[in-house]
Specification:
heterotrimer; B: mainly alpha; two-stranded antiparallel sheet; 2 strands; C: alpha/beta; Rossmann fold; 3 domains; 6-stranded mixed sheet; 20 helices; 34% helix
């Protein structure tokens, strides 16, 4: 029962965070003030929802072993991200989030995604209003990776993982561009959202915005880096993580 | 401000000042900026934030991050202006100061785009104000991020997030060790000889990961042996209450957001629902904070200087609210 | 304080079945009194660490496995409970304290356990004052842990383990990373804790000679499942893992055995035994020549203008304290390390100017953390990869490894091998490349005396006229066993280049235990003594 409510809560949290990301597509026509208000409300709500889900996952019996393994993967992610930073389109954080979540489960993946972004922001600077949104985006990537189906056939497993990596890279990129869209394009240009317009028209403007700002190129870069890294290190990393899980006696209960 | 900090060089600093004070001050400045539409005020806030960092910072690694915020702010201003120039809606009725040749592009998405064309003073001014507002917000947050010590901040995390904060601080402590380990393993790789392709990458990542996991399990064992994980007087009722309250909070917030976006009903109603959600979130937070019993032996105190800092920033915010900045 | 009845413990394999027929610990019965100071010892891999961990729930909760029997601590049966259920009764100190620190300031680290147990603030303040006075940490409370010396860190770890009010203290090899002075300090403190505070102290240690003089009793974990407790003098009668002093007594039939150098000196004086001359190999042709080599890191000069030659058929030991430049010199000779100036001559040129692959045909090295070279998922894969890489017939590395380490199931994960087996594996991987220069950096870390003897035998096997072996170490007994020649580094320069007899002989600064006890010229190892 507890578990069921917990799952439903996480589902709702996913739904609300998608709404908060994509609001420019849906928002009804109204006064300028109202749009600004919505924007301000969302800046507050996103971290709140994020914290609620984090607490939800941590409230269960998270053991010191889980925390230590999380610490290792978060640190590795932050360090790898530090090394890869600055090279356009190279996003090295995702493959570890996906592989970690795949081995240790959705809840672990959610925390891993959110905290990886947080720690690299703490270490290199990068805290700002965008941070909760990036954290939520990466957390959702981790959450989803926990649901990747398992297969005993190695090639099929790789197909699943890489398929998800490509999907997640584009969705994450799309969500983040969607978030900065109203900020960077503002209103009143041909590429800006128009409150009250049909979804299709706003979506078309959004896609043009993605094309012109080069967002899709970044997403493609992210998809390629993540897939290649999974292809190269996936099997070995999964084996290492699984061994660590067995030795520590922790499973996928999170 | 500069006089205050220069003759009492230790009044505000990254080591003495409560990290919460820097964050409150940063948020107050950011909020003031978001309420203002006066270019001069926005620039003053930006410069003020930069100046504060320059005067109070030490050589901690996070102190250097202000540069990143500065460039980000610059890029935002630039992008805003470029967007206005390139994708401006044709409105050449007034103040046109630049007439660029116009292009049309059809991406096959239903409408064709008109690029460049006439640029008006008003549109550029609007872009500059919007851009500088974002830049001022970014720099205010950047100030807090550059001056607040993240370790101290983590120590001030409320009980509900204790486990998450623990994972994060483990990660922060492990990161430098990882870099050392990476260097050692890379050097050692040369002794084994470089294998081709795949193995050269796994040959570095796997030993580093194995070492670090081993270390982290020692750490976990040490935490456990020293009492981490004690349930205290947490009851299953309390756990159930927390779960139910989380569920209720999220449902309320979702309904509120949906109404805010879709429904044409009175704005008043959706805000009330969201507000109720916020209050319930506070209750959830409180509930899950009380589920563990720990002593907080070392509590970072707020000093007078911290309060002065917050007060100064609040004065700016007060001025913003009174509307002084929007003229 | 602790009462163990019929305690058994077995590890499980991946399928959840018992790993071997013999349990790691089999029907152990013993008691430990309040204020008793106990040494726990046994051969490497016998399970002394596991035994310690069963006493606070880390085994099986962090190691996996099954535990049965009764474990009464202060009268309460805590068998199988989670470690945190023990935390107010039993304190635990890890082998490497810096790996187990949860905070970054001394005070935060010390109070951690008290915070978790929700002890009142006033009580914590009192306990911090008492413990920091006792352990000499008063001046350090606000320092970052990373700035402390190894001995200071160990003392912080002890304070942190006792703040919960624990009356039992478990320590897993607390002095293995400390120099003699730091180790003595920690041992004196532990003795004080046992005598004055009534804390039962259990100390697992493989450097027995350091500790055995100060303890009340000795627990031996034999490795066949049995665990015995008794007086120090009775416990080592037939132990194979004992240090040279005790081994000398065993061989000469001393009863009771001598535990300290003083006792042994007296016994030897009464009835000295005959001994043979130590055999050293004649140097072969010159394999490598170092001329005016210098290594500087920024303003720090790690190795000052140094020249030396290495000869075939010889094992050369490079000794010196921590920070004397041993590791820097090894890496500079190997070719990939920093070298500020100077040359290294071999038959095929200077290794520094070679590509990574070519260099491996001239110099090979086993680094301090040997396991860093292992990255595949099974022993079989590692051996196969090595054959392919060295372009030798399949099975060559496996044969070599078997010769060094004995027959081992090749489906095992390399990280599950013991420290000694990992070392043998890396040694085989390096030897198969057949380079004329083999360098080992601190190879005996974590090995007991039996494992060191095995390694010495392996190295003796691999030397030949074309191959020279250089070992950087500060392990005196190991050098006495294996070296033909000793170089002593001091502050980056070679202070001594002589026969082991001169460097390790009696009266010398680096005298071996046997030399120290017997005071006979030309006698440095137990192997020379006739019985």
């Amino acid at each position: 029962m507890n578990k069921l409510i917990s799952r439903i809560s996480v589902g709702i949290a996913g739904l609300i965070s998608i709404l908060i990301f994509t609001w420019p597509l849906f928002i009804k026509a109204g006064e300028q003030n109202e749009t600004l208000l919505a924007q301000t409300v969302f800046i507050v709500l996103m971290p709140l929802v994020l914290i609620l889900v984090l607490i939800e996952f941590a409230t269960g019996d998270i053991s010191s072993k889980h925390l230590a393994l999380l610490g290792v993967l978060i640190a590795l992610n932050a360090v790898i991200r530090l090394l890869g930073a600055g090279t356009a389109g190279i996003e090295t954080a995702f493959f570890l989030i996906i592989l970690g979540a795949f081995v240790f489960g959705s809840g672990f993946g959610f925390i891993l995604g959110a905290c990886s972004i947080l720690v690299s922001a703490l270490l290199t600077g990068g805290i700002g209003p965008w941070l909760p949104f990036q954290m939520m985006g990466a957390a959702l990537v981790g959450l989803g990776a926990g649901l990747i189906p398992r297969s005993n056939r190695l090639w099929l497993q790789k197909v699943f993982l890489i398929g998800y990596a490509v999907f997640a890279s584009f969705i994450y990129g799309g969500l983040m561009t969607m978030w900065n869209w109203p900020y960077l394009a503002g209103t009143g240009t041909q590429l800006s959202y128009v409150a009250g317009d049909p979804i299709t028209e706003n979506l078309s403007r959004f896609i043009q915005y993605e094309l012109f700002t080069g967002g899709l190129v970044w997403d493609l870069g992210r998809a390629i880096t993540t897939s290649v890294l999974i292809l190269l290190t996936g099997t070995a990393l999964i084996a290492t993580l699984k061994r660590a899980a067995t030795r520590a006696g922790v499973g996928r209960e999170l | 401000m500069s006089a205050l900090t220069s003759n009492t060089s230790h009044l505000f600093s990254t080591t003495r000042t409560h990290p919460g004070a820097w964050w409150l001050a940063g948020l107050a400045l950011a909020l003031s900026a978001s309420l203002s539409s006066n270019l001069m005020v926005l620039m003053a806030i930006s410069v003020g934030a930069m100046l504060t960092v320059w005067l109070c910072r030490d050589d901690a690694p996070w102190s250097r991050s202000i540069r990143f915020y500065f460039f980000l702010g610059g890029i935002v201003v630039l992008l805003r202006v470029i967007f206005r120039v390139v994708f401006n809606l044709a409105d050449a009725s007034q103040d046109v100061f630049l007439n660029l040749p116009s292009f049309s592009i059809d991406l096959g998405l239903g409408n064709s785009l008109h690029l460049l064309g006439a640029v008006s003073v008003l549109s550029i001014q609007a872009a500059l104000v919007d851009g500088f507002r974002l830049a001022a917000i970014i720099l205010s947050i950047g100030m807090a991020n550059s001056l607040a010590n993240p370790r101290k901040l983590l120590r001030a995390t409320p009980g509900a997030l204790y486990e998450i904060a623990t994972a994060v601080s483990i990660a922060i402590n492990l990161a430098p060790q990882l870099i050392t380990s990476l260097k050692l393993v890379r050097r050692a790789r040369g002794l084994r000889g470089h294998s081709k392709g795949i193995k050269s990458l796994t040959g570095i990542v796997i030993p580093v990961l194995e070492d670090t996991i081993e270390q982290s399990m020692q750490l976990a064992a040490s935490m456990s042996a020293r009492g981490f994980g004690r349930k205290g007087n947490r009851t299953s009722l309390q756990l159930r209450l927390t779960r139910a309250s989380t569920f209720l909070t999220l449902t309320l917030l979702t309904v509120g957001v949906a109404m805010l976006l879709f429904s044409s009903a009175q704005q008043f109603v959706d805000l009330v629902i969201i507000f109720a959600g916020l209050i319930l979130a506070g209750v959830t937070f409180k509930l899950s904070s009380t589920r563990t019993t720990r002593t907080k032996y070392i509590v970072q105190r707020w000093h007078i200087a911290d309060l002065v800092l917050v007060l100064l920033a609040s004065l700016v915010l007060l001025a913003a609210f009174s509307g002084v900045f929007s003229k | 304080m602790i009462e163990i009845k019929n305690l058994s413990f077995s590890y499980l394999n991946a399928e959840g079945k018992q790993k071997s027929e013999e349990p790691q610990l089999n029907r152990v019965n013993l008691t430990i009194a309040p204020g008793e100071f106990v040494l726990v010892c046994g051969p490497t891999g016998s399970g002394k660490s596991t035994f310690l961990k069963t006493l606070n729930g880390l085994a099986p909760n962090f190691t996996g496995g099954v535990i049965t029997g009764e474990l009464l601590i202060d009268g309460v049966n805590l068998l199988g409970a989670e470690p945190y259920e023990f935390s107010h009764l039993v304190g635990y100190v890890n082998q490497q304290p810096e790996g187990a620190f949860v905070a970054d300031l001394v005070l935060d680290e010390i109070v951690y356990s008290a915070e978790q147990l929700a002890i009142g603030k006033e009580q914590i303040t009192k306990d911090v004052q008492r413990l920091s006075k006792l352990l000499g940490l008063e001046e350090l409370l606000n320092s970052p842990l990373s700035t402390l010396s190894g001995g200071q860190q160990q003392r912080v770890a002890i304070a942190a383990a006792l703040i919960s009010g624990a009356k039992v203290l478990l320590l897993d090899e607390p002095t293995s990373a400390l120099d003699l002075q730091g180790a003595t300090e920690v041992l004196n403190l532990l003795q004080k804790l046992a005598r004055e505070e009534g804390v039962s102290v259990l100390l697992a240690e493989h450097r027995i000679s350091r500790v055995v003089g100060s303890v009340d009793s000795v627990i031996v974990v034999h490795g066949d499942g049995s665990v015995t407790k008794g007086n120090p003098a009775d416990q080592f009668n037939d132990a194979r893992f004992a240090p040279p002093i005790i081994e000398l007594g065993q061989q000469l039939g001393w009863k009771p055995l001598a535990m300290t150098a003083k006792q042994a000196q007296a016994l030897w004086k009464k009835a000295p035994a005959a001994f043979v001359e130590k055999h050293f190999n004649e140097p072969g042709p010159r394999v490598l020549e170092v001329t005016d080599l210098e290594v500087t890191f920024g303003s720090l000069s790690a190795v000052k203008k140094t020249s030396l030659s290495l000869f075939g058929n010889q094992i050369t030991a490079l000794m010196g304290e921590n920070g004397s430049g041993k590791t820097s010199l090894c890496w500079a000779i190997q070719g990939s390390g920093t070298r500020t100036s100077g040359t290294v001559e071999t038959a095929t040129g200077d290794p520094k100017n070679m590509s990574v692959q070519d260099r491996l045909e001239v110099t090979t090295m086993v680094p301090q953390r040997a396991a860093d070279l292992l990255f595949l998922n099974s022993l079989a894969d590692e051996l196969h990869e090595s054959d392919t890489f060295a372009k030798v017939p399949a099975g060559t590395t496996a044969n070599l490894f078997q010769k060094l380490a004995g027959r081992i199931d090749t489906s095992i994960h390399p990280r599950d091998l013991s420290a000694g087996q990992q070392l043998s594996l890396v040694l085989s991987l390096q030897l198969v490349k057949n380079a004329p220069v083999l360098i080992l950096d601190e190879p005996t870390r974590g090995l007991d005396y039996a494992a060191k003897r095995a390694l010495a035998k392996q190295l003796d096997q691999v030397r030949n006229a074309e191959r020279t072996v250089l070992i950087a170490t500060h392990d005196i007994e190991f050098v006495a066993m294996v070296a033909d020649r000793v170089l002593v580094l001091k502050d980056g320069s070679i202070a001594k280049d002589a026969s082991p007899l001169d460097v390790l002989g009696s009266g010398q600064e680096l005298a071996s235990q046997i030399a120290d006890v017997t005071n006979e010229a030309g006698l440095i190892t137990i192997g020379q003594v006739l019985h």
